[in-house]
Amino acid sequence: MKKESSGAATWENAGVAPPSDIERSSATDTPAASRPKAYELVLDDIEDELRTGALKVGDQLPGERALAEAHGISRASVRDAIRILDVMGVVRTSTGSGPGAGAVVISEPAAGIATALRMHVASARLSVQEIVQTRILLETWAARVADLDADPERSAVVLREARGLLADMDDPQLERESFHELDARFHVLLSGLAGNAVIEAMMESLRLAISDYVRGAVRSDEAWEPVATVLRDQHHGIFDAVVSGQGEVAAELLREHIEWFHGWSTGS
After folding, report:
1. How does pLDDT run across 200-212, given as a tens digit for each residue?
2. CATH: 1.10.10.10, 3.90.1170.30, 2.40.10.10, 3.90.950.10. Which one for 2-107?
3. Average pLDDT over residues 68-95
4. What contacts 95, CB < 8 A, 6 or more positions away?
5. Average pLDDT over residues 150-175
6. What is the C-alpha to C-alpha distance for residues 39 and 20, in angstroms, rounded to an integer?
7. Where are the CATH 1.10.10.10 domain residues in the chain?
């Protein structure tokens, strides 16, 4: 008993919640492969609260100590959960005090998806070719189903921004890095005309997942200029087809555009 009391005092002195009965017993009572990790209790609870509306975007999560006590786990496990939510694009963390400090609920699904995709592309589990094929599927589908009349005001805003991006990319003095960034935004914008938030998030995540591959495809300014000329012409053709409501034409031009650049960059 004395030894247990000393252990509890050590936890308190360290400012850390002692392991709960769940954390103590799980190591011996349940096979490691099947028992939940302590931080999963926090993730599951936050998911439930988001689903029911008890938590909303902009809300601040309770502090580490409060979450640890509520779930009967250590503060270290709570920190693990917050880190995972941060990487997933579900919370934004910051230090200090006030309404913006701590962990605040956000919604940036593309960030979490892109992080996972980049890691798996780097590990060669997912190939760039597969990412490109997925991008073609998403963009051509979006072009076919886009209905500019479904939300005329939003469509006008998107097309105006896309037209501005085209004008910026037409600048012959534009640096390659800036061109790639504008190019990616152009494609994500047009995909957004489909009115599907999942498609938009996936497109943004695919863009982030292969950004290094795209930047590294052209090694010199001399090699870049003729490529940029082709890309500009292709972009204008795609845009004109979208504006005129020719979804099938736009889809085919998008497929040719993406396949052309990928083929050129890989020498295939």
Report:
1. 888 888 877 777 7
2. 1.10.10.10
3. 89
4. 101
5. 95
6. 12
7. 2-107
